[in-house]
Write a structure and sequence with these properties.
about 250 residues; alpha/beta; Rossmann fold; 6 helices
């Protein structure tokens, strides 16, 4: 595996990005792994590596870069009354979809300049706060994002600008939306509303409810980690990327 961490230039600064891909056999289809609210950490780098080992050029950007370099957090970020959690929330609460879409555009331009990255369709998937970002990217860049997935994405139906539910008809690629049965940030009535909007828009893909699991089930270091559900999420994600990206 080839690994590097470098800055991708955006209109707002330098976005630190972890990149990995196989050493030989390229070029490789590019995919963007978009972080959850807890930020870039070794757990997510390992998830990027898992995708890299099966033949992808993976980018894991620090989407908090506008708030400075000191936007990675310790393990206590998962503890709600901790200092790390409070420090993260001061940045998280400033996040909106449109600037992240500009970051996606910067990553697409970067990918096009990289020899190990295969030209053409790109994938994007996000967890928690970035589930909406991945889906929004598929509608903002329908000519490039051929596959996008949201895993326990938060508030996929809301009044935010570029909320995913508003632009499902603009998506040209395939979407996969995985929701946890127990998730206060994506309640079941919202999931059902999204299903109806998905069908009416004629969007290609699937919304799947994972029974018995909680928000965060795919993260190995989370207390709610569920191995069967996590492995299913990998199977569904990689199968979609194989279909749409190669």
């Amino acid at each position: 595996m080839i690994e590097q961490t470098l800055d991708i230039a955006t209109k707002d600064g330098a976005m630190e990005t972890f990149i990995c891909h196989p050493e030989r056999g390229g070029p490789f289809p590019a995919v963007m792994l978009l972080m959850d609210a807890h930020g870039v950490r070794e757990e997510l780098r390992d998830m990027a590596r898992r995708l890299g080992t099966v033949g992808y050029y993976v980018l894991l950007p620090n989407l908090y870069y506008r708030a400075g370099r000191d936007t990675t957090y310790g393990h206590d970020v998962r503890v709600r009354d901790s200092a790390e959690y409070a420090r993260m929330r001061t940045v998280r609460t400033t996040m909106t979809i449109p600037p992240v879409m500009e970051d996606v555009g910067a990553m697409l331009a970067f990918i096009d300049r990289q020899d190990p990255a295969k030209p053409g369709p790109v994938g994007a998937h996000g967890y928690c706060m970035s589930g909406p970002y991945a889906l929004a990217a598929a509608s903002r860049y329908p000519d490039r994002i051929a596959a996008a997935a949201s895993f326990y994405g938060t508030w996929l139906v809301n009044d935010a600008e570029e909320s995913p539910h508003l632009n499902l008809a603009k998506v040209a690629g395939e979407l996969y939306i995985a929701c946890a049965e127990h998730d206060a940030l994506a309640p079941l009535p919202m999931v059902e509303e999204l299903r109806g909007l998905f069908r009416r828009a004629g969007t290609s893909g699937e919304i799947e409810l994972y029974p018995g699991v909680h928000h965060g089930f795919a993260f190995p270091e989370a207390g709610v980690y569920d191995k069967p559900a996590a492995e299913r999420h990998w199977e569904r994600l990689i199968a979609m990327y194989r279909r749409r990206l190669g």
